[in-house]
Amino acid sequence: MSDASISPEQLRQLCEQLGLQRAFKLYPDAVRAAAERGLRPLGDPPGSHVATAAPAAVFNPARFERDP
Length: 68
What we know:
Blueprint: H1 8-18, H2 21-26, H3 28-39
């Protein structure tokens, strides 16, 4: 995600989807700041890794079954 700020229309739609219309009406600056803060990435992955370098493992319950 880029550092560009969220557009007013995108923010309105996001608030509508999440049920935050009233909060947006009462505190538009706070909601905008929270949305922009929440949409920024937490940080870069370490080293030369990319965010999708290691997919999550899939749980397979058959691997844990024992033969009687």
